Amino acid sequence: MSEHPYPVGPPAQPLGQQSWEPVGQPQAPAPAPVPAKGRVAVVLLSVLVVLLVGASVLTIVLWLGARTDAEQEAKRLDETTTSLSSAKDELEDTKKENSDVSGRISTLQGQNSELHKCADATKAAMAALKSGTDAEVSAAAKKVTANC
Fold first, then answer.
1. Total domains present in the chain
2. Would you state the pLDDT for residue 71?
3. Residue 94 and residue 101: Cα distance in Å, rounded?
4. Hey, CA dihedral for 33, 36, 42, 43, is it positive or negative?
5. Is 107's pLDDT higher than 90?
6. What is the span of the domain harbouring residue 58?
7. Distance CA 111, CA 12 (A)
8. What is the pLDDT of residues 23-44, one digit of tens each?
9. Rounded to whole angstroms, how far apart are CA atoms 70 and 63?
């Protein structure tokens, strides 16, 4: 007799130990497995836990990104504030210089009008010397003396 590595049928029982099965009565079918209500709850809880962990990770990532953005914006605000303060100082200096220059312009315009009086009188005297009479030259000389 050849032996197979795997049995090919029911194991042979010694004579006398065979079980009796009634021939005319059908066997009752095995009961259907009862679905476990706890298994559905475990699956739902597992899905809920995964969603909560995902939401937590997303929240942490967004919070860290917002914190980094807030730090960068705070630095930019500090730099802008410093730049604005510097620009205000420069504006004040420029306004002061402008005021000084305006004062000098007024002074120079006053001096210019005074010098024009002298220059105009001198031009008139020179014109009188070239082609005028002694009375015209004398009057022009008095005018030059009065204005210069």
1. 1
2. 93
3. 10
4. positive
5. yes
6. 39-147
7. 141
8. 555 566 666 665 567 788 899 9
9. 10
